[in-house]
Amino acid sequence: MDAHVWMGSTPITSSDYTERTGPYDGRVVSRFALCNASDALNALEIARKAAKTAKKAPLHQRCAWLKDVAEKLKEQREEFARVLCDEVGKPIAYARIEVDRCIETITLSAETMRTMHGETINTDAMASGRKAHAYWRREPVGVVVAITPFNFPLNLVAHKLAPALVAGNTVVLKPTPEAPLCAYKLSKLFIESPYAVRDALSVVYGDAEVGSALVGSDIPRVISFTGSVGVGNIIAKSAGIKKVSLELGGNAATFIDADADLDYAAQRCAIGAFVNSGQVCISLQRIYVDSAIYDEFAAKMAEATSKLVVGSPYEENTFLGPLINDEAAERAMNWVESAIAEGARALTPPKRDGRVFYPCVMADVTESMKIVCEEVFAPIVSLVKVDGIDDAIARMNNSPYGLQFSVFTNNLAHATTAIDELDAGGVVINDMPTLRFDIQPYGGVKLSGVGREGPRFAIEEMSEIKSIVIL
User: Fold this and answer.
1) Most buried by CB count within 10 Å: which residue of 83, 203, 303, 304?
2) Is residue 442, in this structure, part of any structural domain at all?
3) How far apart are CA 319 and CA 90, in angstroms?
4) Does residue 86 come out as left (phi exceeding 0), alpha (psi in the -120 to 50 range) or beta?
5) Quick one: pLDDT at residue 2?
6) Three-state secondary-structure class, residue 435
7) pLDDT tens digits, residue range 162-209?
8) CA distance between the termini of the chain
9) Do 427 and 453 fall into the same domain?
């Protein structure tokens, strides 16, 4: 387990490193080199110099590059899944799903770039114009800084690297310190590919010092960040004049209409609330239930939750494994106990076994409780009784977040009302708000961020439009 960083295409071994212990059993599973601001600036300078070469690399080479990485990743699927299981405690079955999604994200990025193009412009469309040969095209921005989180440490890296590189940019990646080996191994596939642009990708690890050096530098043109609102706010204030794409927190909610299929809704809500131990930006946290069917749905939700398998992430049938660290597990228990003290009821018993926090369904919750108004990022979901669709929409929108919401209904008018009136980057009808297809535009409004991910939309964020006129 050598501690490496990638300074461009050159691996640098450091004797100054930190060990990563797995969240489930505390074993040392990886290590990462401790970088500083000087390392970050060195990586940026390497990326700046390589940007000219990357821009000139033909599209067929860049697409072949991504295809090669996707094929190698498919060959090493089980190895990568095991690393995810080790470093972040992701249940092995879902770790494999993340590897598969990562392969799809990389493949989609190449396929999308092949069909992206500019268009001609009718310059004589207005009286002030005249005939000319005019068009616009997309060009790479140059250097992209990518900062990624722990909850999907493979696929969310791919959502930044693949669009940036296939668009002709260079990248400096600062991955989460919770999954250093995952980021290193994926980056290695990109860097060692026979189609790679030399020095197009660097990987540095670190804390606020490294992040500040990357964000505050004049070299990058785009900062792509996925993480907390607090850090996103710091980045927005310190980035200066450059593109900033922020995928931040969420407080996802759904409404269960009186005419919904309650068995289906309960099953999907249990998955949406507790998959990945609730450590998902679009994890279902608030369930607003029509008062006419509140008690019936609450019983079905508790029953669906009780069937989920909790335990070792290395077991094939485990659905829910550990939270990322002790602090997260302690916070989850404290928030549940606080809500109970304020009058809420736990429909499934609050239980913690080390970092494993068992899925908890809360009822009789009020809007002022932390488990409703703040992002939990743990396997806790709250049921709130409402008087119909209008009441539900008002309560769902009464949040500083707006990432994804959903509605379970068989009423077309209610569905269209939700689509029109919910303040969110995404609205899902008849499924959990935790649903995400990697091909779709993904991002939020309000404190949930700015910009959109998804291969096509990330490529747009990571490219510039150049307008050309020939007379």
Assistant:
1) 203
2) no
3) 9
4) alpha
5) 57
6) coil
7) 999 999 999 999 999 999 999 999 999 999 999 999 999 999 999 899
8) 60
9) no
Residues 244, 267, single domain; the answer is no
Do 242 and 270 lie in one domain? The reply is no
State whether 49 and 79 are in the same domain.
yes
CATH of the domain at 299: 3.40.309.10
pLDDT for the residue numbered 452? 97
Structure token digits, residue 67: 């295809």
Whether 177 and 302 share a structural domain: no
**Residue 172 burial (C-beta neighbours within 10 Å; 0-12, 13-18, 19+):** buried
3-state SS, residue 266: helix
**The model's pTM:** 0.96
Judgement on whether residues 181 and 41 belong to the same structural domain of the protein: yes
Q: How far is CA 184 from CA 9, 94, 154, 175, 188, in A?
A: 12, 20, 10, 9, 6
464 is catalytic: no
Closest CA relative to residue 226, chosen from 249, 256, 209, 260: 249
All residue ranges of the chain with pLDDT < 50 are 1
What is the domain range of residue 422? 252-437
pLDDT at 214: 98
Exactly one of 85, 102, 269, 281 is catalytic; name it: 281
Model confidence pLDDT, tens digit, residues 321-364? 999 999 999 999 999 999 999 999 999 999 999 999 999 999 99
Question: Two tokens at 69?
Answer: 């990485």
Q: What span, in angstroms and rounded, lies between the C-alpha atoms of 397 and 394?
A: 5
Tokens 């307008």 found at: 467
* CATH code at position 460: 3.40.605.10
Q: What is the pLDDT of residue 13?
A: 83
Residue 217 has phi, psi (to 5 degrees) of -70, 150
- Coil, helix or strand at residue 231: helix
